[in-house]
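General statements about sequence and structure are easier to judge against a single worked case. Part of our work consisted of pairing the sequence of a single chain with a tokenised description of its backbone. The amino acid sequence and the backbone structure tokens for this protein are reproduced below.

***
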Amino acid sequence: MKKYFFLLFILFATKSNSQELRLWYDQPAKVWEEALPLGNSRLGAMVYGNPVREELQLNEETIWGGGPYRNDNQNALKALPEAQKLIFDNKNGEADKLINETFFTRTHGMPFQTAGSVILNFPGHDDFQNYHRQLDLERAVATTHYTVNGINYTREVFASFDDDVIIMQVTADKKGALNFDIEYVNPSEHRISEQNNVLVLEGKGSDHEGIKGEIRYQIHTFAKNNDGKIRFSDNKLYVSDATTATIYISIATNFVDYKTVGGSPEKKAAEILAKAIAKNYKSAIEKHSQIFNKQFSRFKLNLGNIPSGLQKTTTQRILDFRNDQDPSLVTLLFQFGRYLLISSSQPGGQPANLQGIWCNSMYPAWDSKYTVNINTEMNYWPAEVTNLSETHQPLFRMIKDLSESGHGTAKSMYGADGWVTHHNTDLWRVTSPIDFAAAGMWPTGGAWLSQHLWEHYLFTGDKNFLSDIYPVMKGSADFFLSSLIEHPQHGWLVVSPSVSPEHGPITAGCTMDNQLVFDILTRTAMAVEILDGDKSYKARLLSVADKLPPMQIGKYTQLQEWLEDVDDPKNEHRHVSHLYGLYPGNQISPYTSPELFEGARNSLIYRGDMATGWSIGWKVNLWARLLDGNHAYKIVNNMLTLADSDNPDGRTYPNLFTAHPPFQIDGNFGLTAGVAEMLIQSHDGAVHLLPALPDKWATGMVSGIVARGGFEVSMKWENGEVSEVSVLSKLGGNLRIRSYTPLEGKSLTKAEGKNSNSLLEPAHIKKPLISDKALLKGTSLKPIYEYDINTVTNKTYQLKKLQP
């Protein structure tokens, strides 16, 4: 009966979600940040929904500026010892100048670029009524409805997961009422022609910073009608006197891999188009939505709602959130993050960049590259925990590429083994520093990226995967084994030269570097043990890790960002890099390192609650790890402020893209990960249920949320307490449950001793150094209950709140 009731609850939540998981508006998009995003990982489209002039702004994942290139500076290796000496002599300004002259080139990365737009012009549709446009997150379909002169018009658009094209169907409810033309608008060098009843655009990526543009691409647009006429004239396609017309857009480039651009865009675009148009529209849209929903529907979330919420446009809901606190808007934004990740990152494709797969410029902000000192990693924080593990695969492929290209950078610029990458890369997988010393002189990008490989293993227990990516982890570890330098004052091994990302001077041994190097060394050592590798190599890894600087608590009771106690408690810089060890790392625990836990909390308080969109996303996760659900919820509130012309300081655009500003997709992904982190945590030795639940979400349910160890959890809570839990054990092994609420269930025993499940192993760190001036007050924690279940593979376990 209990299991039956829980199933009914999930079914009810599913029905409720289907009504709520839509973005909708009562007017067309006027600007790009109001348009609705569609994507199938390779192709992206932004749909404006204008009755008179419909615009589909297009992207293809490999349309970038430049071509294969390297940006290593061969003068770096010779200058390295002098730069390190200047840093140790506290001559940071001189070190900065030397590094800018010898570590950088004039090439700072290539831009991700738009493929332009397909425009559909509808003469006479100016005076429209009954307007409605929406994006259905469960079907991945954008729809526009409106009426002109008593005739109802409908447009459906999707980026097909099955046919790999953009498809739009336009219909009228009066026979022969459709009359429109199709044209291209494209800012790149291009040529348009008609070939075999297909409107073809041939374009190219631009030259950039001395690197020749070598990307060639073609867009093939075809119209299929049931009645009426189709003709071509003046580089346009005309549809007249039709009742229904279906538009197919196929895009392909000559990109093969980061070293090769020898493909045939015309052949690929034509072949994809031919297969797509051979299918009927109904089966095409149904198959697309089926494939998409197979991933999207794994995770259900219900935080409650308010009765008036669904009657408001999405824009109005954002405006009203500060007053009505509609929890279903948080659910929508959360699921929108999952929608974006599915739509921009699928196996075999490129990873989601700074703007995912959506970009309307030839030269977007920060080139819409891969910024790996936080932003790229943040894109993938939701992948495992929100049950979208396969979306992680493009990042893994890029990390492998970087391990290849970064080997040359490690050798030529540092004289080191292994591989290295700095704070940015692009389609061409460059690995040397870009921009300038205070931002780009950061050689620990590979160490951070490699943590995603390890985290995937912890969630899946896939030893074949671990064996496959072990050389990548080893290569990153080898770089630090051969490049760390002894600090002349402290005797610790440190990274030098480096920076605390985008904050402060050129330095040695900043806290984030120490945390990252600790993780790559110790986790590679664990991989050696699991794979029964070289024990002497494991011993060397752990020996070097033991010589890294410990974390330090400074005079303001803060976790120090640098070796020196120079943090400014009034500085609210957007980067909180020294808190990596709290999240996404697991080195700071309330249960095993309370001083560091308190210091991290103080540091986060000093940095303030308002920041750029991506920084807000990080802070939600950090406050969740600090087990403070109400403060995490306060940060969620800061994200849900409307960003428009009247409020440029808002952090969410009308289409739910998050604002740096401008748009960066990492804020969306960080927010989604943060909400999940408020509901479940599994980094600190146990699966913690509702670790940071805010008062505003006193009643709710979640299903399909994933913990490390291969545990898939569904649970219901009431009055802020867990009431029912269902856990599917995909791997077997010991499940240690941590809860603020006492539980009961079959096979449940009180936890004792060390957890035997290595996939839930907490970090084992050095004892921190604490300033004599630091007046720590201690942290008050809720009492916890811990239980063990010796689980069996693919068996589900039911628990509930212990009844008095």
